Amino acid sequence: MNDERSPTHSPLSRAVSRRQVLLGLSAVGGIGAVTVGGYGYARGVLTPQQLTSSRFADRFETVFGQHDGFRRNHAKGLSASGYFTSNGAGAAVSTAAVFSPGRIPVTGRFSLSGGLPCAPDGDAVVRGMALLFSLPNGEQWRTAMVNIPVFLDSTPQNFVDRLLVSKPDPETGKPDPRKLKEYLSDHPETVAAMKIVHQQPPTSGFENSTFHGLNAFGFTNEAGKTVPVRWKMLPEQPVKPATPPQPSGQDYLFESLIRATADTPLQWRLILTIGEPEDQTNDATKPWPDDRKTKDVGTLTLDSVQTEDRGNARDINFDPLILPEGITALDDPLLNARSSVYARSFARRTSESKQPSKIKVEEVLDEH
Protein backbone atom coordinates (compact mmCIF):
# COMPACT_ATOMS: atom_id res chain seq x y z
CA MET A 1 0.00 0.00 0.00
CA ASN A 2 1.17 3.51 -0.74
CA ASP A 3 1.87 5.62 2.34
CA GLU A 4 -0.27 8.74 1.95
CA ARG A 5 1.67 10.58 4.64
CA SER A 6 5.16 10.00 3.30
CA PRO A 7 6.12 12.03 0.22
CA THR A 8 9.49 10.31 0.04
CA HIS A 9 7.68 7.07 -0.78
CA SER A 10 5.59 8.50 -3.59
CA PRO A 11 5.55 6.42 -6.78
CA LEU A 12 7.73 8.92 -8.63
CA SER A 13 10.80 6.69 -8.86
CA ARG A 14 8.61 3.70 -9.75
CA ALA A 15 6.86 5.81 -12.40
CA VAL A 16 10.15 6.86 -13.95
CA SER A 17 11.43 3.31 -14.28
CA ARG A 18 8.18 1.66 -15.31
CA ARG A 19 6.58 4.29 -17.47
CA GLN A 20 9.40 6.53 -18.73
CA VAL A 21 7.29 9.63 -18.41
CA LEU A 22 8.83 13.05 -18.89
CA LEU A 23 8.97 15.86 -16.40
CA GLY A 24 6.37 18.58 -16.55
CA LEU A 25 3.83 20.55 -14.65
CA SER A 26 0.38 20.24 -13.14
CA ALA A 27 -2.88 21.54 -14.33
CA VAL A 28 -4.55 21.43 -11.03
CA GLY A 29 -1.99 21.67 -8.41
CA GLY A 30 -0.04 24.14 -10.46
CA ILE A 31 3.46 22.76 -10.50
CA GLY A 32 6.40 22.67 -12.83
CA ALA A 33 9.74 21.17 -13.73
CA VAL A 34 12.18 20.77 -16.60
CA THR A 35 12.16 18.16 -19.33
CA VAL A 36 15.06 16.09 -18.01
CA GLY A 37 15.36 12.99 -15.84
CA GLY A 38 12.63 12.69 -13.22
CA TYR A 39 14.90 11.46 -10.44
CA GLY A 40 17.11 14.52 -10.66
CA TYR A 41 14.10 16.78 -10.54
CA ALA A 42 12.53 15.08 -7.55
CA ARG A 43 15.79 15.10 -5.60
CA GLY A 44 16.46 18.77 -6.39
CA VAL A 45 19.95 18.11 -7.75
CA LEU A 46 19.69 19.88 -11.08
CA THR A 47 21.90 22.80 -12.03
CA PRO A 48 21.17 26.24 -10.53
CA GLN A 49 19.71 27.44 -13.83
CA GLN A 50 17.12 24.69 -13.93
CA LEU A 51 13.75 24.61 -12.22
CA THR A 52 13.66 22.04 -9.41
CA SER A 53 10.65 21.15 -7.30
CA SER A 54 12.05 23.23 -4.46
CA ARG A 55 12.55 26.26 -6.67
CA PHE A 56 9.08 25.87 -8.09
CA ALA A 57 7.58 25.84 -4.60
CA ASP A 58 9.65 28.96 -3.92
CA ARG A 59 7.94 30.67 -6.85
CA PHE A 60 4.53 30.10 -5.28
CA GLU A 61 5.78 31.64 -2.06
CA THR A 62 7.14 34.60 -4.02
CA VAL A 63 3.71 35.24 -5.52
CA PHE A 64 1.43 34.34 -2.60
CA GLY A 65 3.68 34.57 0.43
CA GLN A 66 4.42 31.75 2.86
CA HIS A 67 1.49 30.43 4.88
CA ASP A 68 2.69 27.82 7.34
CA GLY A 69 0.86 24.52 7.32
CA PHE A 70 -1.00 25.12 4.06
CA ARG A 71 -0.52 23.80 0.53
CA ARG A 72 1.51 26.06 -1.74
CA ASN A 73 -1.31 25.99 -4.29
CA HIS A 74 -5.01 25.27 -3.77
CA ALA A 75 -4.43 26.39 -0.19
CA LYS A 76 -8.07 27.15 0.59
CA GLY A 77 -10.21 24.05 0.88
CA LEU A 78 -12.53 21.64 2.66
CA SER A 79 -12.21 17.91 3.21
CA ALA A 80 -14.93 15.55 2.06
CA SER A 81 -15.81 11.89 2.39
CA GLY A 82 -18.08 9.40 0.67
CA TYR A 83 -17.85 6.46 -1.70
CA PHE A 84 -17.64 5.42 -5.33
CA THR A 85 -20.07 2.88 -6.77
CA SER A 86 -18.71 1.16 -9.86
CA ASN A 87 -21.19 -0.20 -12.39
CA GLY A 88 -18.57 -2.54 -13.85
CA ALA A 89 -18.43 -0.87 -17.27
CA GLY A 90 -14.89 0.39 -16.73
CA ALA A 91 -13.55 -3.18 -16.68
CA ALA A 92 -13.79 -3.19 -20.48
CA VAL A 93 -10.90 -0.71 -20.68
CA SER A 94 -8.95 -1.31 -17.45
CA THR A 95 -8.22 -4.07 -14.97
CA ALA A 96 -7.99 -1.49 -12.15
CA ALA A 97 -9.88 -2.70 -9.07
CA VAL A 98 -11.74 0.61 -8.92
CA PHE A 99 -13.79 -0.54 -11.92
CA SER A 100 -14.92 -3.85 -10.45
CA PRO A 101 -18.63 -3.72 -9.56
CA GLY A 102 -19.23 -2.55 -6.03
CA ARG A 103 -18.63 0.29 -3.57
CA ILE A 104 -15.33 1.64 -2.24
CA PRO A 105 -14.62 4.46 0.24
CA VAL A 106 -13.36 7.82 -0.99
CA THR A 107 -11.65 10.73 0.76
CA GLY A 108 -11.94 14.02 -1.12
CA ARG A 109 -11.05 17.67 -1.05
CA PHE A 110 -12.65 20.76 -2.63
CA SER A 111 -10.40 23.75 -3.16
CA LEU A 112 -9.72 27.00 -4.97
CA SER A 113 -6.51 27.63 -6.90
CA GLY A 114 -3.90 29.96 -5.48
CA GLY A 115 -1.70 30.01 -2.42
CA LEU A 116 -3.82 32.20 -0.14
CA PRO A 117 -5.77 30.17 2.45
CA CYS A 118 -7.96 33.17 3.30
CA ALA A 119 -8.56 34.50 -0.23
CA PRO A 120 -12.13 35.55 -1.00
CA ASP A 121 -14.14 33.16 -3.17
CA GLY A 122 -14.75 34.18 -6.77
CA ASP A 123 -16.71 32.69 -9.64
CA ALA A 124 -13.76 32.95 -12.01
CA VAL A 125 -11.26 31.26 -9.67
CA VAL A 126 -10.38 27.72 -10.73
CA ARG A 127 -12.10 25.11 -8.52
CA GLY A 128 -10.55 21.81 -7.60
CA MET A 129 -11.78 18.35 -6.65
CA ALA A 130 -9.17 15.86 -5.40
CA LEU A 131 -10.00 12.24 -4.60
CA LEU A 132 -8.36 9.24 -2.96
CA PHE A 133 -10.03 5.92 -3.79
CA SER A 134 -9.20 3.24 -1.19
CA LEU A 135 -9.29 -0.05 -3.09
CA PRO A 136 -9.99 -3.41 -1.43
CA ASN A 137 -6.64 -4.90 -2.49
CA GLY A 138 -4.66 -2.25 -0.58
CA GLU A 139 -4.02 -0.06 -3.63
CA GLN A 140 -5.00 3.57 -3.95
CA TRP A 141 -5.97 5.79 -6.84
CA ARG A 142 -5.41 9.49 -6.31
CA THR A 143 -6.51 12.16 -8.74
CA ALA A 144 -6.72 15.95 -8.67
CA MET A 145 -9.16 17.61 -11.07
CA VAL A 146 -10.28 21.14 -11.92
CA ASN A 147 -13.39 22.76 -13.36
CA ILE A 148 -11.73 23.89 -16.60
CA PRO A 149 -11.56 21.59 -19.66
CA VAL A 150 -7.93 22.27 -20.63
CA PHE A 151 -4.76 23.48 -18.96
CA LEU A 152 -3.37 26.89 -19.90
CA ASP A 153 0.32 26.00 -20.32
CA SER A 154 2.08 23.37 -22.38
CA THR A 155 5.38 23.26 -20.44
CA PRO A 156 6.56 23.65 -16.87
CA GLN A 157 8.63 26.71 -17.69
CA ASN A 158 5.64 28.37 -19.30
CA PHE A 159 3.59 27.80 -16.18
CA VAL A 160 6.10 29.33 -13.81
CA ASP A 161 6.66 32.25 -16.19
CA ARG A 162 2.93 32.94 -16.35
CA LEU A 163 2.67 32.59 -12.58
CA LEU A 164 5.34 35.25 -12.07
CA VAL A 165 3.96 37.74 -14.62
CA SER A 166 0.54 37.35 -13.01
CA LYS A 167 1.84 38.49 -9.61
CA PRO A 168 -0.09 41.61 -8.53
CA ASP A 169 1.82 44.86 -8.35
CA PRO A 170 1.92 46.08 -4.70
CA GLU A 171 0.81 49.57 -5.76
CA THR A 172 -2.11 48.63 -8.02
CA GLY A 173 -3.08 45.22 -6.67
CA LYS A 174 -3.19 43.96 -10.26
CA PRO A 175 -0.69 42.26 -12.59
CA ASP A 176 1.34 44.45 -14.91
CA PRO A 177 -0.77 44.49 -18.12
CA ARG A 178 2.30 45.07 -20.28
CA LYS A 179 4.05 41.96 -18.97
CA LEU A 180 0.90 39.87 -19.40
CA LYS A 181 0.41 41.11 -22.95
CA GLU A 182 4.01 40.29 -23.82
CA TYR A 183 3.72 36.84 -22.33
CA LEU A 184 0.51 36.00 -24.20
CA SER A 185 1.89 37.28 -27.48
CA ASP A 186 4.71 34.75 -27.15
CA HIS A 187 2.42 31.86 -26.12
CA PRO A 188 -0.39 31.34 -28.64
CA GLU A 189 -1.19 27.92 -27.13
CA THR A 190 -2.14 29.67 -23.88
CA VAL A 191 -4.36 32.13 -25.73
CA ALA A 192 -6.07 29.25 -27.54
CA ALA A 193 -6.61 27.38 -24.25
CA MET A 194 -8.05 30.51 -22.63
CA LYS A 195 -10.61 30.77 -25.43
CA ILE A 196 -11.72 27.19 -24.79
CA VAL A 197 -12.06 27.88 -21.07
CA HIS A 198 -14.09 31.03 -21.69
CA GLN A 199 -16.51 29.03 -23.84
CA GLN A 200 -17.44 27.02 -20.75
CA PRO A 201 -18.25 29.61 -18.06
CA PRO A 202 -18.28 28.56 -14.40
CA THR A 203 -21.39 27.26 -12.69
CA SER A 204 -22.91 28.64 -9.50
CA GLY A 205 -20.94 26.38 -7.15
CA PHE A 206 -18.74 23.40 -6.45
CA GLU A 207 -21.76 21.13 -6.20
CA ASN A 208 -22.77 21.56 -9.87
CA SER A 209 -19.33 21.90 -11.43
CA THR A 210 -17.84 19.42 -13.88
CA PHE A 211 -14.31 18.47 -12.85
CA HIS A 212 -11.76 17.41 -15.48
CA GLY A 213 -8.69 15.22 -15.04
CA LEU A 214 -6.95 17.04 -17.96
CA ASN A 215 -3.99 14.64 -18.28
CA ALA A 216 -4.07 11.49 -20.40
CA PHE A 217 -3.33 8.08 -18.89
CA GLY A 218 -3.02 4.58 -20.32
CA PHE A 219 -5.81 2.15 -19.40
CA THR A 220 -5.03 -1.55 -19.94
CA ASN A 221 -7.69 -4.27 -19.99
CA GLU A 222 -7.48 -8.02 -19.40
CA ALA A 223 -6.60 -8.63 -23.05
CA GLY A 224 -3.54 -6.42 -22.65
CA LYS A 225 -4.87 -3.65 -24.87
CA THR A 226 -3.89 -0.14 -23.75
CA VAL A 227 -5.83 2.94 -24.80
CA PRO A 228 -5.36 6.61 -23.88
CA VAL A 229 -8.02 7.92 -21.51
CA ARG A 230 -9.01 11.23 -20.01
CA TRP A 231 -11.78 11.47 -17.41
CA LYS A 232 -14.18 13.90 -15.83
CA MET A 233 -16.72 14.01 -13.01
CA LEU A 234 -20.13 15.09 -14.33
CA PRO A 235 -22.52 16.44 -11.66
CA GLU A 236 -25.91 14.91 -11.03
CA GLN A 237 -27.00 18.14 -9.35
CA PRO A 238 -28.83 20.63 -11.61
CA VAL A 239 -26.35 22.93 -13.33
CA LYS A 240 -26.89 26.61 -12.64
CA PRO A 241 -24.74 29.30 -14.26
CA ALA A 242 -22.82 31.77 -12.16
CA THR A 243 -24.66 35.01 -12.75
CA PRO A 244 -23.64 38.51 -11.68
CA PRO A 245 -23.63 40.07 -9.24
CA GLN A 246 -21.40 37.68 -7.34
CA PRO A 247 -22.87 36.62 -3.97
CA SER A 248 -21.61 38.48 -0.94
CA GLY A 249 -19.38 36.85 1.64
CA GLN A 250 -15.77 35.77 1.33
CA ASP A 251 -16.60 32.06 1.54
CA TYR A 252 -19.87 31.87 -0.39
CA LEU A 253 -18.79 28.97 -2.62
CA PHE A 254 -17.72 26.83 0.31
CA GLU A 255 -20.74 27.80 2.40
CA SER A 256 -23.02 26.79 -0.46
CA LEU A 257 -21.21 23.44 -0.67
CA ILE A 258 -21.62 22.85 3.06
CA ARG A 259 -25.34 23.60 2.98
CA ALA A 260 -25.89 21.48 -0.14
CA THR A 261 -24.13 18.47 1.39
CA ALA A 262 -26.13 18.84 4.61
CA ASP A 263 -29.39 18.69 2.65
CA THR A 264 -28.59 15.64 0.51
CA PRO A 265 -25.55 13.64 -0.64
CA LEU A 266 -23.88 15.08 -3.73
CA GLN A 267 -23.21 12.88 -6.74
CA TRP A 268 -21.06 12.94 -9.87
CA ARG A 269 -20.79 10.36 -12.66
CA LEU A 270 -17.27 9.29 -13.64
CA ILE A 271 -17.03 9.58 -17.42
CA LEU A 272 -14.06 8.13 -19.31
CA THR A 273 -13.18 9.56 -22.72
CA ILE A 274 -11.39 7.01 -24.91
CA GLY A 275 -8.75 8.52 -27.15
CA GLU A 276 -7.71 7.44 -30.63
CA PRO A 277 -4.10 6.76 -31.72
CA GLU A 278 -3.83 10.17 -33.34
CA ASP A 279 -4.92 12.07 -30.20
CA GLN A 280 -2.26 13.97 -28.32
CA THR A 281 -1.43 12.56 -24.92
CA ASN A 282 1.41 14.93 -24.06
CA ASP A 283 -0.28 18.34 -24.21
CA ALA A 284 -3.02 19.20 -21.73
CA THR A 285 -3.78 22.48 -23.52
CA LYS A 286 -5.26 20.55 -26.46
CA PRO A 287 -8.78 19.07 -26.21
CA TRP A 288 -9.66 15.82 -27.92
CA PRO A 289 -12.36 15.84 -30.63
CA ASP A 290 -15.94 15.87 -29.38
CA ASP A 291 -16.80 12.63 -31.19
CA ARG A 292 -14.54 10.44 -29.05
CA LYS A 293 -16.23 7.49 -27.35
CA THR A 294 -17.19 7.95 -23.71
CA LYS A 295 -18.06 5.45 -21.01
CA ASP A 296 -20.02 6.05 -17.82
CA VAL A 297 -18.29 3.80 -15.26
CA GLY A 298 -19.93 4.66 -11.95
CA THR A 299 -21.12 7.24 -9.47
CA LEU A 300 -19.21 9.25 -6.88
CA THR A 301 -21.24 10.10 -3.78
CA LEU A 302 -19.93 12.64 -1.28
CA ASP A 303 -22.14 12.79 1.80
CA SER A 304 -20.01 14.83 4.19
CA VAL A 305 -17.66 17.80 4.16
CA GLN A 306 -15.37 18.70 7.03
CA THR A 307 -13.18 21.54 8.17
CA GLU A 308 -9.62 20.48 7.38
CA ASP A 309 -8.01 18.90 10.40
CA ARG A 310 -5.84 16.00 11.49
CA GLY A 311 -6.75 12.71 9.87
CA ASN A 312 -8.77 13.94 6.88
CA ALA A 313 -7.77 15.29 3.48
CA ARG A 314 -5.59 17.94 5.11
CA ASP A 315 -2.93 15.27 5.59
CA ILE A 316 -3.13 13.71 2.11
CA ASN A 317 -0.78 14.40 -0.77
CA PHE A 318 -2.97 13.93 -3.88
CA ASP A 319 -0.06 12.67 -5.96
CA PRO A 320 -1.39 11.92 -9.48
CA LEU A 321 1.12 9.11 -9.97
CA ILE A 322 -0.33 6.98 -7.20
CA LEU A 323 -2.20 4.67 -9.55
CA PRO A 324 -3.69 1.19 -9.32
CA GLU A 325 -2.60 -1.61 -11.62
CA GLY A 326 -4.41 -1.14 -14.91
CA ILE A 327 -3.76 2.62 -15.10
CA THR A 328 -0.36 4.02 -16.08
CA ALA A 329 1.12 7.39 -16.94
CA LEU A 330 1.82 8.03 -20.62
CA ASP A 331 4.04 10.74 -22.10
CA ASP A 332 2.22 13.74 -20.61
CA PRO A 333 4.99 16.16 -19.58
CA LEU A 334 3.03 17.36 -16.56
CA LEU A 335 2.82 14.30 -14.39
CA ASN A 336 6.26 13.69 -12.90
CA ALA A 337 6.52 17.35 -11.98
CA ARG A 338 3.13 17.28 -10.31
CA SER A 339 4.26 14.29 -8.30
CA SER A 340 7.59 15.74 -7.23
CA VAL A 341 6.37 19.25 -6.46
CA TYR A 342 3.33 17.97 -4.58
CA ALA A 343 5.81 16.00 -2.48
CA ARG A 344 7.91 19.12 -1.91
CA SER A 345 4.89 21.14 -0.84
CA PHE A 346 3.76 18.26 1.38
CA ALA A 347 7.15 18.06 3.08
CA ARG A 348 7.20 21.77 3.78
CA ARG A 349 3.71 22.08 5.17
CA THR A 350 3.93 18.98 7.35
CA SER A 351 7.10 20.34 8.98
CA GLU A 352 5.41 23.65 9.79
CA SER A 353 3.06 24.56 12.61
CA LYS A 354 -0.57 23.98 11.67
CA GLN A 355 -2.89 26.93 11.31
CA PRO A 356 -6.66 26.55 11.74
CA SER A 357 -8.72 26.36 8.57
CA LYS A 358 -10.65 29.53 7.87
CA ILE A 359 -13.78 27.64 6.80
CA LYS A 360 -15.72 26.36 9.79
CA VAL A 361 -18.29 23.77 8.73
CA GLU A 362 -20.00 23.67 12.11
CA GLU A 363 -20.62 27.42 12.11
CA VAL A 364 -22.23 27.30 8.68
CA LEU A 365 -24.41 24.35 9.67
CA ASP A 366 -25.52 26.14 12.86
CA GLU A 367 -26.87 28.94 10.70
CA HIS A 368 -28.38 26.61 8.10
* Helical proportion, percent range: 10-25%
Structurally, how many domains make up the residues?
Answer: 1
Mean pLDDT: 85
Count of DSSP helices? 9
Largest sheet: 10 strands, antiparallel
Let me know the CATH homologous superfamily: Catalase core domain
Q: Explain this structure to me?
A:
Belongs to the catalase family. This protein is globular. The protein is 25% helix and 21% strand. By secondary structure, the protein is an alpha+beta fold. It is built from nine helices and ten strands. It has one domain: Beta Barrel (Catalase HpII,  Chain A, domain 1).
Give a quick rundown of the structure:
Keywords: Heme, Iron, Membrane, Metal-binding, Oxidoreductase, Peroxidase, Transmembrane, Transmembrane helix. By secondary structure, this protein is α+β, with helices and mostly antiparallel strands.
Topology of this structure?
Elements: H1 12-19, H2 38-43, H3 53-64, E1 76-86, E2 102-112, E3 127-134, E4 140-146, H4 156-165, H5 177-185, H6 188-198, E5 211-212, E6 217-220, E7 226-235, H7 252-263, E8 266-274, E9 294-306, E10 327-329, H8 335-350, H9 361-367
Antiparallel strand pairs: 1-2, 1-9, 2-3, 3-4, 5-7, 6-7, 6-10, 7-8, 8-9
Helix pairs in contact: 3-8
Function: Has an organic peroxide-dependent peroxidase activity.
Keywords: Heme, Iron, Membrane, Metal-binding, Oxidoreductase, Peroxidase, Transmembrane, Transmembrane helix
EC number: 1.11.1.-
